[in-house]
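Researcher: Re-running this chain for the archive, since the previous output was lost when a drive failed. Same request as before.
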Amino acid sequence: MQKTLTNHLSLITLLAVLSVFIATTFVSQSAHAAQPTVNLRTASPFAILSGTPGITDAGNTSVINGNVGLYPASGAGIGLLCTQVSGTIYSADATGPLPCRITDSPLLLTAKNNLTTAYNDAAGRTPFTTLGKELGGKTLVAGVYVSTDTTFEITNIGPLVLDGQNDPSSVFIFQAPFEGTGLTVGPGSTVSLINGAQACNVFWRVDTASINTTGTFVGTVLALNSISVANGATIDGRLLARNGSVTLNNDTITASICAGNDTLDATPGLPNTGEASNQSTILAIATSTFLATAASLIAYAFYKKRSI
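Model: Regenerated structure tokens:
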């Protein structure tokens, strides 16, 4: 009888350990699940969105594919021509380039608020991987990357390659969490995408950004302050400056759209807190409960059988 009871207890223990292992596996997988994209909402259609004092372009030769907006500064600070912008130029007051300029302060306020929300969302993403400031020559897969320095740098020692691993929804978030220059892209430096990675899912949360001459850059810059782009750079993404200015010089900026989407206004997503999702947690709990119940029933059946 004692031996049988011992066997039953061993069986219960084994099943309990198995249930804990399965539960832990589900939770762990969920905690490191793929990041959802950073939802820009009404800021999404803007190739350039700036705060103050303005948006300038040396020589007025840059090409902007997408909308342009300046808020709260006066539209007089928008130093672009209508012929440079494929979308709409929005101003907070009745000043700015004509005939393409539209005065819409409420729209700009909403877009700036959505930019602030996106900036804070990107800043709070976990889990993350810590990297040194130099990204040139690296190949990275989807995830959140935090700089150990005051900046991320991409120099022409080699391109920064973002590998989507054949998943077009893969998201790359870069955080430079210190005050000061948050992103410096060197002359002729390149960010490239492979295996399904998309520019619409690359985000740079920084204090300020500087993209140098003939740089080829990918992603949406979410800057607390100013963004400057030197002569001849190409940006597949957005330049969104919460408080500062955006400075251009014969550059090309294209607001990126995810393949399969016919709109720049993304569907609201849930922030990744780094914790298990409710669905996975429920599944883990249900699995554990089932196995624990099964163990109890088996033990009880053996006990009753020995008692007869």
